């Protein structure tokens, strides 16, 4: 298990993290979402030892992460970083060696990864001569070359074209299949929803929601009810107790049911207006969950 | 399975190795190294030309005799001119030789009135040598004819009041050249260190590096790697310079020249350690190469001042300024070698100066290391010293 536990961090008077915690099981992918400035990068930098938390710790296999354990983590910083004048192959080899591989193994692994990521022909080129997409692949190779036990990737998909996104997603899924826990942050929620086993949403330094995608959806489900009543007059549901009309357009009505509101009463009212062509719980998309979680100023914490 | 955790030494070695291999492929580095060597060899050549050029003359002689040749050579020795004599058959041959520039002048010695053929005019040493030789020969011949035996001329004994003045001068010149090279290399390698630090910050690769090592590993590896290159370069320059000077016989004090070269190399090590750390720390405060100038200027000015004081010390090694600055860490590497070369310094003075410098290096590395660690991950704009110190271990 990769555990982030009760992380607190302030920069001067600015409290960036106020008790961030989540766990990632081996062989699963964790999507880390949150608005800009929510604290995602700070959390990852703490895991990599680049920042020291004011409180809390990050554990891998039960033990707090230390320098030795971090050499077994593959990391991709938000701000991509490579030596611009160093050749692709040598650069990847260098990072393999910094992670403790000996010269021969590092050179072999470097050649292998450079080939695998489709950069075989560019091995002898300086990194600055590559397109941004290809530089991103070198960055990924640098993160994967030492066969890490854990992957922590800050915005790995940003700046990639759809083909690049697919090939990176495939590479990450492959890592997951070999049992590596993968944590990545992203603003592309559809991607997170598609790839991740579990998701954490960070807002104002706290985890406002975390769990598997179906879990989160189920938790929010049972609140939004979509009723389509073509013949109903406008405002047909306004008087129902515990019901808030979210939107209404020519009978297509989205209702927010709070607390003990009775969905059967809603149905009865709907039937009285005439035909009911649709009556179903609306499953929220991750985007809606995200908006909900991030927008609410006093969002209650939802533990997984 | 990934590799094991590396020890500090292994990490520092990896960083240093990368610095060296990156520099060895850098055209600027290669070019500047070649330029330094070329300038040095040029200086040597210039010295050789100045000390021997114009001091030699070729004299063609028609109707030569053993006595005349001996007289010409003796005269040449007396006037410090290297005389070479070419035997010529007759006047026609002499004219041809002069016109073809094969000889500087041709002496027609067969007749009663000796005549010197020259192309345009006889240079000072040429006519002096010929005039002296002919006159001396004539005097001794006439004396012989008059029955007077060869005169025993007493040899004048020479007593030098300052026998070492010349040698001291040469040592000081050697020290000035040495300090000049030292200054150039300190500036150059200090810049390399600074550019390397900013490159890592500007390209953001530093975040990836710091995920695998502590900031001091990175700082130490960078300074060590470039330092080894710098040391190799100054040793190469010293060896070429000393070997050249000895081969071409430019100096009279080979032992002391070597001593001066060794002390310059030793002071390079101390000066480099100090300035590289200062340059690296200064560079860590900025994030773009364009901003580098502003943070490096103060340190560069100190180096320039040290160089100027060093030159001043060469002209007056006992001045108060030279004595005081030869103890001041940062200035001492460019002043003390000059004082040492001038021979005006006791062993304890050198030891004290070295000790102060070492203390300063330790202080700079300690404090600088903290600033460097605090500033490395601040990649926006310019970091203030105070912020960097506060951010350390943040």
How is the secondary structure organized here?
The complex is a heterodimer of chains A (304) and B (394).
Chain A: E1 2-11, E2 14-24, E3 29-34, H1 40-47, E4 55-60, E5 63-64, H2 67-70, E6 73-76, H3 88-98, H4 103-116, H5 132-144, E7 150-153, H6 162-177, E8 182-185, H7 189-195, E9 198-203, E10 206-212, H8 213-220, E11 224-228, E12 243-249, E13 252-257, H9 263-272, E14 278-281, H10 286-295
Parallel strand pairs in A: 3-8, 3-9, 6-7, 7-8
Antiparallel strand pairs in A: 1-2, 1-4, 4-5, 9-10, 11-13, 11-14, 12-13
Helix pairs in contact in A: 3-4, 3-5
Chain B: H1 8-24, H2 27-52, E1 56-62, H3 66-78, E2 82-88, H4 91-99, E3 105-108, E4 115-118, H5 124-145, H6 165-202, H7 205-210, H8 215-247, H9 254-284, H10 292-315, H11 320-325, H12 332-342, H13 347-375, H14 385-391
Parallel strand pairs in B: 1-2, 1-3
Antiparallel strand pairs in B: 3-4
Helix pairs in contact in B: 1-8, 2-8, 3-5, 6-8, 6-9, 6-10, 6-12, 8-9, 9-10, 9-12, 9-13, 10-12, 12-13, 13-14
Please describe what this structure looks like.
The complex is a heterodimer of chains A (304) and B (394). By secondary structure, chain A is an alpha/beta fold. Chain A has helices spanning 40-47, 67-70, 88-98, 103-116, 132-144, 162-177, 189-195, 213-220, 263-272, 286-295, and strands spanning 2-11, 14-24, 29-34, 55-60, 63-64, 73-76, 150-153, 182-185, 198-203, 206-212, 224-228, 243-249, 252-257, 278-281. Chain A has two domains: 2-211, P-loop containing nucleotide triphosphate hydrolases (Rossmann fold); 222-282, Alpha-Beta Plaits, CATH 3.30.70. Helix content of chain A is 33%, strand content 27%. Chain A has a six-stranded mixed β-sheet with strand order 6-7-8-3-9-10, sandwiched between helices. Chain A has a four-stranded antiparallel β-sheet with strand order 2-1-4-5, covered by helices on one side. Chain B is mainly alpha-helical. Chain B has two domains: 8-48 and 165-391, no CATH class; 54-145, Periplasmic binding protein-like II (D-Maltodextrin-Binding Protein, domain 2, 3-Layer(aba) Sandwich). Helix content of chain B is 69%, strand content 6%. Chain B has helices at residues 8-24, 27-52, 66-78, 91-99, 124-145, 165-202, 205-210, 215-247, 254-284, 292-315, 320-325, 332-342, 347-375, 385-391; strands spanning 56-62, 82-88, 105-108, 115-118. In chain B, helix 9 (254-284) runs antiparallel to helix 12, helix 9 packs parallel to helix 13 (347-375) and helix 13 packs across helix 14 (385-391). The longest helix of chain B has 38 residues, at 165-202. Chain B is elongated and about 100 Å long. The chains are: A alpha/beta (304), B mainly alpha (394). At the A-B interface, helix 2 and helix 3 of A face helix 1 and helix 7 of B.
């Amino acid at each position: 298990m990769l555990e982030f536990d009760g992380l607190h961090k302030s920069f001067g008077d600015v409290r960036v993290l106020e008790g961030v915690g989540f766990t990632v099981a081996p062989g699963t992918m964790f999507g880390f979402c949150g608005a800009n400035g929510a604290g995602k990068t700070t959390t990852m930098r703490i895991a990599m030892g680049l920042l020291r938390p004011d409180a809390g710790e990050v554990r891998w296999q039960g033990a707090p992460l230390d320098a030795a354990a971090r050499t077994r983590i593959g990391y991709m910083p938000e701000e991509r970083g490579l030596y611009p004048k160093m050749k692709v192959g040598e650069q990847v080899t260098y990072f393999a060696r910094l992670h403790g591989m000996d010269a021969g193994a590092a050179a072999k692994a470097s050649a292998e990864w450079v080939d695998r990521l489709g950069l075989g022909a560019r091995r002898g080129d300086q990194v600055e001569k590559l397109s941004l997409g290809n530089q991103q692949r070198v960055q990924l190779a640098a993160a994967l070359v030492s066969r890490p036990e854990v992957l922590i990737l800050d915005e790995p998909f940003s700046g990639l074209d759809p083909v690049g996104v697919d090939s990176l997603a495939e590479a990450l899924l492959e890592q997951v299949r070999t049992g590596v826990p993968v944590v990545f942050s992203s603003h592309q929620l559809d991607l997170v929803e598609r790839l991740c086993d579990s998701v954490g949403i960070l807002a104002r330094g706290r985890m406002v929601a975390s769990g598997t995608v179906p879990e989160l959806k189920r938790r929010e489900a049972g609140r939004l009810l979509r009723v389509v009543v073509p013949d109903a007059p406008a405002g047909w549901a306004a008087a129902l107790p515990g019901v808030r009309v979210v939107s209404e357009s020519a009978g297509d009505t989205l209702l927010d049911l709070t607390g003990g509101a009775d969905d059967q009463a809603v149905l009865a009212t709907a039937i009285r207006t005439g035909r009911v062509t649709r009556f179903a719980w609306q499953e929220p998309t991750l985007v809606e969950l995200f908006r909900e979680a991030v927008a609410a100023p006093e969002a209650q914490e939802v533990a997984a | 399975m990934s590799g094991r955790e590396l020890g500090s030494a292994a990490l520092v070695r990896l960083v240093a190795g990368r610095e060296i291999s990156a520099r060895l492929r850098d055209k600027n580095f290669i070019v500047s190294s070649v330029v330094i060597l070329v300038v040095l060899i040029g200086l040597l050549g210039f010295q050789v030309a100045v000390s021997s050029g114009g001091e030699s003359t070729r004299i063609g002689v028609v109707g030569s005799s053993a006595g005349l040749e001996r007289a010409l050579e003796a005269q040449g020795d007396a006037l410090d001119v290297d005389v070479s004599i070419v035997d010529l058959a007759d006047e026609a041959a002499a004219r041809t030789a002069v016109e073809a520039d094969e000889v500087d002048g041709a002496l027609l010695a067969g007749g009663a009135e000796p005549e010197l053929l020259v192309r345009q005019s006889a240079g000072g040493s040429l006519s002096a040598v010929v005039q002296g030789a002919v006159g001396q020969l004539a005097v001794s011949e006439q004396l012989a004819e008059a029955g007077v035996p060869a005169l025993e001329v007493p040899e004048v004994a020479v007593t030098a009041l300052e026998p070492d003045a010349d040698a001291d001068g040469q040592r000081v010149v050697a020290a000035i050249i040495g300090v000049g090279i030292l200054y150039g290399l300190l500036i150059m390698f200090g810049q390399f260190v600074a550019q390397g630090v900013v490159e890592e910050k500007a390209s953001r690769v530093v975040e990836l590096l710091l995920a695998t090592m502590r900031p001091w590993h990175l700082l130490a590896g960078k300074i060590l790697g470039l330092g080894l290159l710098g040391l190799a370069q100054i040793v190469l320059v010293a060896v070429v310079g000393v070997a050249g000077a000895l081969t071409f016989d430019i100096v009279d004090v080979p032992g002391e020249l070597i001593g001066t070269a060794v002390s310059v190399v030793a002071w390079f090590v101390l000066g480099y350690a100090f300035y590289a750390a200062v340059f690296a720390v200064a560079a860590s405060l900025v994030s773009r190469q364009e901003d580098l100038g502003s943070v490096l200027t103060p340190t560069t000015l100190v180096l320039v001042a040290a160089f100027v004081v060093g030159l001043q010390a060469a002209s007056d090694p006992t001045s108060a300024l030279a004595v005081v600055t030869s103890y001041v860490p940062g200035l001492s590497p460019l002043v003390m070698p000059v004082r040492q070369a001038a021979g005006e310094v006791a062993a304890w003075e050198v030891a004290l100066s070295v000790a102060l410098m070492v203390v300063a290096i330790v202080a700079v590395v300690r404090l600088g290391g903290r600033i460097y660690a605090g500033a490395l991950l601040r990649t926006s704009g310019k970091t203030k010293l105070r912020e960097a110190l506060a951010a350390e271990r943040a």
